[in-house]
Amino acid sequence: MSRLTTALAGHRVVICAGAGGVGKTTVSAALALGLAAQGHRVALITIDPARRLAEALGLDSLGNRPQRVDTASLDGTESEVRGELFAMMLDAKRTFDELIELLAPDATTRDQILANPIYQHLSTAVAGSQDYTAMAKLFELDHSGDYDVIVLDTPPSRHAIDFLQAPDRLIAFLEGRALAAFLRPTGHVARVAGLGFTALRRITGMGLMEDLTALFQLLAGLLEGFRRRARDVHTLLTAGTSSFLIVTSPEAAAVDEAIFFGAELDRAGMHRAGVIANRVHPLDQRGADKATATRLTAAFGDRLAAKVMSTHDDVQRLAHRDQAAIERLRSALGDEPVCLADRVADVHDLETLVEVESELFGRTSARPRQARAA
Amino acid sequence: MILDGKRLLIVAGKGGVGRSTVAAALGLAGARRGLETIVVETAGRGDVARALGGRPGERLAEVELQPRLHHVAIARRPALEEYLQQQVPTPLPAAVLARSRAFELFVDAAPGMSDLLTIGKVWELGQRPRRRRGALAYDLIILDGPASGQLLGLLDAPRTFASIARIGPVAHQANAIDEMIRNPSTVGLIAVATPEQMAVSETLELRTTLTERFGLGIDALVVNRVFASRFSAADRRALAAAPDDPAIRDARWYDGRVRAQRTHVARLRRCLPGVPRRTLPFLFTPQFEPHDIEQLAGILAGTG
Known about the structure:
The structure holds two protein chains of two kinds. By secondary structure, chain A is of the alpha/beta class. Chain A has 16 helices and eight strands.
């Protein structure tokens, strides 16, 4: 059994997190595919404005519900999906609306919230609404009991930590004494808040303040529901059956981010299943080697041999950087990274996804790390 | 230089394509031409400052990293305090108001307020004279923007805000900022893409959204991390027939990457006809050093 299979055994929720642009979407899709191949019923949630996953999975559009992915083309291969693979692309606005519908005490409150201009912008435009709704969707799918495993690809963001903080930010936003003072000021607080309110009104103009006050009053009725939901999500994320997979590229900024995020997960009492180092260049263990140059010159002549050698030198420079990055990840996170080779072209069909999947689960290594004699 | 004559260059692109590197190189190219240039970072990672061999300043400090090349990182709270100090006649000291829980909630809640503060600060950097007394007036502002989706939110913030606030000082100012963003004679949008399927798709989507929602387009394209072709067709055949060896594998991998990139560059060229384009090479350096940025700046300036 591969290291990753062992690390993920018994897990119902796997969250792929990391800096932007490291290949999270591909890794989470390959992971979901691999788990489905092992016989599980898997749902993959991706949050992806560029529709990358849709391309990779051959789906034209993904609704806000998991849809069955057609994996018939893999039947009879090593990656035949013995379970079932479902995938969905998160629609943040729709998920937020559904949550309001679920938590609103009555139809009038629900309709007033959904029609409030501030709410309409809040549920789409505000950074963090994707993070929050991703968690809400994760909870919903887990709660439904329809799937053995749910794989979540986290929203694009420079900082992976934004995702973890999303529920707390929303609750902090919805509750708090200051908010109460804002809405129903009394005593000393009223005097200061009243001045603040006057200042705000003067700055912002009336329309905005009225809409905002109305929204807060409406949401006050849902606050307990939001709090409960945040607690439920926290319970789900810290459960023994949930874990995080940290995805990174070997670039310094991404590695910094991965190490920071790993420490934050530990602090939050959340489980790490491992770290994936994506886009790694295989190291030639022989190092600089005169014999290779001689052999290449004999085979190719001076001109081509020189080009091959200088290209090899360039790629090995990256390989050495990558080894240093892997070493840094290993010592900081105490985990042996699972390495995925830097591919010639990026993944946009099921067949290429299978290659990543088999590398991820250690069935093949796209390019053997250990050099064989030519 | 790419997009000569513009005062604000917005650097856009998917996560991980090298926006900060391109912003740093553009900044250097501007400064070398004698323009007082400032590179503005919005994500608070300080990538640009480090790429140029400096450190990001604290609290909206405009730091001169090299002659005529300045840098500022915009963080929300200092931007809010500065905004209140300068813009708003209130009965409370600005710092007290900015620190009040109610106001913080307000900034979190009001749609686009946080984005508005960021883009508002960019606008303020371009004012002549500056609102902050003694502050330097810049000839060229380079915005190292967030990834595509969030960038659109940032550009949309003034209009969103103006439409919700309707009247009042903020709405008034939001309208002024919105006008600045949409002025094609002073603002240029530079899309950065790597020659990869997903990065190209996102660039084309960005173009569509910019046109539909803002009436803007992509003014210039920077294709980043391009592998130069090294092997001929005959070389390729020889490599394919050669016995397995790590050096051969690296050469094949390199050549495969060259050819994969070529199809993506062709797609960009086909879908963005007439858009000025600069190609930056992939640098086989473990860590970007200031002289690497200089090389890229030379190419963007048209002298490299």
